[in-house]
Amino acid sequence: MKITLGRQSILLLGVNGLFALAGALSGTFLNVFLWKSRPDYAMLGWFTISQQLAIGITFWLAGKWVKEHNKMSALRLGTALSGVFYMLVLWTGKSAVDWIWPLGLLLGCALGLFWIAFNVVYFEVTDRENRDLFNGWVGLLGSMTGIVGPWFSGLIISRMADNTGYQLIFTVSLVIYIIAVIFSFFLKKRKVSGTYCWSEPIRQLSTPKSPWRPLSMGLFAQGVREGVFAFLIALLVYLATTQEYKLGQFSLITSAVALVSYWAAGKWFKPHYRSKGMLTGSVLLLLVLLPLLWKVTYGTLLFMGIGSAIAMPLYILPMISAGFDMMGTSGENVEKRVELVVLRELSLMCGRLFGLTVFMITVLNSPSTKVLIWLIIILGAFPLFGWMFMRKLLIKTTARDS
């Protein structure tokens, strides 16, 4: 039977694609912009920590609105606030580094509102059969925007004097966020039902045989890597080359590889491959980091980026699909889907904050490049722990599908 996506799924992919494009244009260079104003690892660490705190808290608080009122308004507000964030960065300019916490909290709230609404709507417009296909398309669109956005931004920034290029790119992102808000009005208003249970994440984690316990630990391990890699790798590429264009080129190449790998994963990666695929992906994600121990150059960073782009779909798709599949295993779980999305994000947030805390302790005591590389290797091993926590759950999923 041919697996297809419905009209609402395609519209949701369109909104996600616009959101991803705006983020790819500016987000790749945001930390470089801040670094050029104040070269301080700790400052970037605090900026990222403030975002993660705001994302987690927003997910938990906004869950009530998303479940009991209008989840589409949360998606639109999150998109709009992302535009407001870049408007404020444009307004403050180099002084943005003096407003790290307010700006980080604003961006975190924007991302939290968008992603809680997106994840809930995503669950509602997909099913077990086409969820891997949808995830593959999300990865495909993310890779396409990653090809076009950073390369274009790097080209513009490198050819314009002072911060003029940054100002132009941030303005373009602002316009795209506005278009995404308009585009979101074509999505149908989703039905709401039930009452939001504030303590559901705690209840799931305190239940001895709840499958959400190993899944939460797997998500925690995923977050440990994500929290630091999300900003540090791009910064290392810039520091190794001192050229925004090279960073754009890095993103273009790695995203082009990811486009192919996500397309292949979306087409051929079936549920019964999840456990072996996740193990293979987590091992490869660690191995491609090892050349950095010899030398940190554009070449070794590019090798790591290409290898990660190939391996990431094998690791991340089982993690995403297994979690959302569990939301549909019973009527109770479907009813609690908003709370379970919140639990999923809180698990990721805790992992990211743990990784960022280790990063902050490291840079405040020994901010040398060699130490940072060892930190990257250690944090890069956490996907293996994620697979260890998830393997029994994935095997059960394989047995159920067969």
UniProtKB/TrEMBL annotation:
It is found in: Cell membrane. Keywords: Membrane, Transmembrane, Transmembrane helix. One of its GO terms (molecular function) is transmembrane transporter activity. The chain crosses the membrane at residues 12-35, 41-62, 74-93, 99-122, 134-153, 165-187, 219-241, 247-265, 277-294, 300-320, 341-365, 371-390. InterPro entries: MFS (IPR011701), MFS_trans_sf (IPR036259), Sugar_transport-like (IPR052528). One of its GO terms (cellular component) is plasma membrane. It is a multi-pass membrane protein. PANTHER family: INTEGRAL MEMBRANE TRANSPORT PROTEIN-RELATED, MAJOR FACILITATOR SUPERFAMILY (MFS) PROFILE DOMAIN-CONTAINING PROTEIN. This is MFS transporter.
